[in-house]
Amino acid sequence: MPTTERPLVSLVTPTYNQAQYLRHTLQSVLDQDYPNVEYIVINDGSTDDTEALLISYGEAVRWRTQANRGQSATLNAGWDMARGKYLGYLSSDDLLYPSAIRRIVELLEARPDCVCAYPDSELIDQNGAVIKRAVCRPFDLAELVVRQECYIGPGALFRADAYRRVGGWKPHLKLAPDREFWMRLAGEGDIAYLDEVLAGYRLHRDAISYRSVSEEVSREYVSVLDDYFARDPAPELLARRDEAYGFAHFLLARNALRDGRLRRGLTLYREAQRLHPPLAHPRYLLQLTRNTVSKPIRAALSGLRNAIGHAR
């Protein structure tokens, strides 16, 4: 694709107190082999060295500082500023690998039926070491709605005109704004998966996946379904409504148990089983245990199991 024909891509990074990772994120965008990128960074009220870091990049990055508004409102503000044909976002602790934007644009330009495309990614730790490669899968709307499994990660781009039709992330959502957005966007066209590892998703102790989540916030799993099923979904998904709500309550139970609310977690798990009886299968109880028992306890249980095995 000649340089003059390469459409503008607008990428937004909202950041809050992640200066220790932000430099690597910024550099990963500036090192892209795609020449037509508008990079917008919004400092969402950080109190660390974020602003000084952004100043050091001069005009290489378009940025601004604002009072803290939260991730969703900040992303929407960035996308509303954007001029590109394609929009995307990159969390301030994640990385794009050098050909990520080019390869996704090539796919979208070849597939006008697609409103979004995303690559595979790998999990990296706080030092950038690879934990696990190839963690994504092809997009499946049923899996997103029913299981709330979302494999769209860093490197995703979507068409700006589709964004304007469906609207941005909902600021009141704290846990599932991305899932809810992809559910709406999927109504506009196909979402394509590129089977190439082109991004790094960073896991560290400050990440949301490591935090305790209240039941009030966890209820988003249910409210997202309420909104989705109110929009006249396809009959095959409407037929799986109880299954979807069952899995939503399973996730509520998982978060309650992670937070140490044992009785509440078991109550929510019983509700999950009522809505979708197959969730009573022992493999789901085992999954709850694996997700909620702390690593030291799992290690101790593993050691005990090994000791028993040797004793036999």
TrEMBL record:
GO terms for molecular function: hexosyltransferase activity. Pfam families: Glycos_transf_2. Residues 10-130 form the Glycosyltransferase 2-like domain. InterPro entries: Glyco_trans_2-like (IPR001173), Nucleotide-diphossugar_trans (IPR029044). The keyword Cell membrane applies. Keywords: Cell inner membrane, Cell membrane, Membrane, Transferase. It comes from the Bacteria. This is Glycosyltransferase.
